[in-house]
Design a protein that fits this description.
Strand content: under 5%
Shape: rod-shaped
Number of strands: 0
Number of domains: 1
Number of helices: 3
Radius of gyration: 22 Å
Order of helices and strands: HHH
Distance between the termini: 79 Å
Length: about 120
């Protein structure tokens, strides 16, 4: 009885693993902390800008990786012996990850711009 359960579990995991494995090679970047322009120094603002640019580049790379992996999975599915199409939930998951990451990029950019505006208001030239 336990043997059957173990074999079924292994079989089910084996079926799900290919869909999960490919996109796991793509690492979602961590957003930098927002800078408070009211208290930040010019050097802190410059450092924050570097962090924001690095995050945006890493996010672009992450999204490219997700799309590349999705294309690879679709190609493998189309070339499989049984021609089984890729589970639509895999593509939906990728699209959702990209949408969330894009929203995070926009949030980080808006927070940085707000910090710069606050800094400029505090330090008029």
């Amino acid at each position: 009885m336990l043997n059957k359960i173990a074999m079924t579990t292994i079989f089910l995991f084996g079926m799900a693993a290919p869909a999960l494995a490919d996109s796991s090679s793509c690492y979602e970047p961590i957003a930098p902390a927002a800078v408070d322009g009211n208290t930040a120094t010019e050097d802190q603002l410059k450092s924050a800008l570097k962090d924001v640019k690095s995050f945006i580049q890493a996010s672009d790379d992450y999204q490219t990786c997700l799309l590349s992996d999705l294309a690879s999975q679709k190609k493998k599915a189309a070339q499989s012996k049984d021609k089984t199409p890729l589970d639509p939930s895999v593509e939906a998951d990728v699209n959702n990850r990209i949408k969330n990451n894009q929203a995070e990029k926009e949030k980080v950019g808006a927070e940085f711009n707000a910090g710069v505006q606050a800094y400029k208001a505090k330090h008029p030239q």
